[in-house]
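User: I've been going back and forth on whether these two constructs are worth ordering. Before I decide, could you fold them both?

Assistant: Sure. I'll take them in the order you sent them. The first construct and its structure tokens:
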Amino acid sequence: MWPILLCSIVALAIIVERFWSLQRNKICPGGLVGKIWHWSKNNELDAAQIASLRGNSPLGRILAAGLTNIHHDREIMKESIEETGRHVVSELERYLNTLGTIASITPLLGLLGTVIGMIKVFAAITTVGVGNPSVLAGGISEALLTTATGLSVAIPSLMFYRYFRGRVDQLVIDMEQESLKLVAVIHGDREMDRSGKTSI
């Protein structure tokens, strides 16, 4: 039971932390590409603006990586964006493997508790026989309780693991689209309107 309870505390902490960290407005705030385009158009895009952008959000960090190579060709700019993007994605996926591991091992820990409980039942039978139901009931209840507790931790852990995986995947897609939009705008392939949307 103690390992299962420890897993439940760790899983709860990860779920709360990921809910806090994976908010869309923190990861991928809107309007950044439009803001960069206006800075570039008005010749206001300097090292201070790029540094501010880098500390703004994970998306800002990716876009800033591209802007540091703004005077190079498209391929170099995209490579720097992709390299930084890999680091950002790794940070977005932080603790998710731990949550997935908890979802996998807690049913096994519950099964282990069941086996231990049944061993105690059979040990009690060999010691006092089947005439004392309270001794047998204690081992059986322990076996069932650990299984139920293990499943109670594993099911929500797996649900949140899948949910956060989906959220990270969507955020990665959004950041890729914004990065490609930045490259297209900076290299003059597209223009932006006042709302910050690109025009074909």
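The second construct, handled the same way:
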Amino acid sequence: MQLIGYLDSPFVRRVAVTMNFLGVEYQHRELSIFRDYDEFRTINPMVKVPTLVLDDGRVLGDSTLIIDYLESQVAGRSLMPADDYGYFGALQNIGTALVAMEKVAQLVYETSQRPENLQHGPWIKRLEQQLKGAAGMMESVVSASANLEQQWLHGDEMTQADISVAIAWRFMMFTERVNLLPDNYPALAAFSARAEALPEFSACPLNS
């Protein structure tokens, strides 16, 4: 199967790292929704990253849907906590991380794809407020987990919540348009750095 999209997208990277943890083999094909738009359209008319192309030609988009498919139909195991309380908490953490990713992407699009004279100041301010809120929520969750002396957010095993939160923070720090200081989020910064040192993460570097 092929995973299409650049790793500078946190959504593509989230799927790639998940596939590494699940032990799912794949070919990574780098296509840009901007530079390779016409080529991308021939694969997925929605031109959405990530796109997963199965060996039989079927196509699936959206990181959450792709991960659900990989866990349930390919790997046969889940990276979610098994108990109800842990599962619900992981969903909350993943939701927060996805919001952070989305707000950064919207900031980038607003400031890099729209002419400066057409950029909407109040909208940018709202995006920045939402992003700061998400970062604060992730910092609180990571701090609470550390206070319980857990290795990861929901115990000693890494879950999809850990993957998503770590990747969200790395993306936020990678993006110049984000004005958040790591010193204000020490637990989150340390948590993400520890995750990034794992081979499943380092095999999918965010460096371009």
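Notes on the second construct follow. The helical segments are 10-22, 37-43, 63-75, 84-112, 121-147, 160-174, 186-196, 199-202. Residues 84-112 form the longest helix (29 residues).
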